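Following up on my earlier thread - several people asked me to post the actual chain instead of describing it. Fair enough. Here it is, all 150 residues.
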Amino acid sequence: MSETQADVQHNGRVMEWTQWPARDRQALSVSVAVFIIVISAVVVLSYESVWYGVMVLVALFAATAPYYLPTNYHIDKDGVRLRTPLTTTVRPWEAFAAHFADEAGVFLSPYSKLNWMAYRRGIYLRCPDNLAEVKAYVEQFVAPGKPRGG
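Reply from S.P.:
Thanks for posting it. Predicted structure:
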């Protein structure tokens, strides 16, 4: 059983699992980290300032943090909780109008149709190893969404 599926509990009340994309794709993770460090070094050499290099390094790692840090997902009858080492997001089921599933997870949207604002206000439950189970659980609380143009 994979690390991402190790803590799945589903007894009708609670589901909990952890996703760590960087662990699943180690070669890509190392490549991107090396690329970020090289870009930061080029900035240091180009601008002759360590501060600019550090700012670029911090900005690029902050932008990729959701990929590099593990995320713990917890869904129960009250709602959804996502916890990373840096943040915790908690939302009740009432905050969502629809859900949309793809091959890697379920997107919970505050709108019944996908629009540009939904992506900023919604929550994506990354669950490629237990997608059917998570989707079935979410459907108890949130209706399926309408596709674009539909």
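The mean pLDDT is 88. That should answer part of your original question.
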